[in-house]
Amino acid sequence: RHIDPLNAQASYRKINQTLQCNICDKYKKSLVLSDKLNTQDLHLKAVTLTGGNISLK
């Protein structure tokens, strides 16, 4: 998924598996469900930085 950095308004839908998204092609964020009943929105669990320039880490 590509997001224009000037319009970084992303939306996600709930699914029963791990969801990966790329933000500005630099960061990978792992999203998880807020609760097991799927009644709340997704929330950010962790940020993992991989590759790229060391100055971005």
Automatic annotation (TrEMBL):
It comes from the Eukaryota. This is Uncharacterized protein.
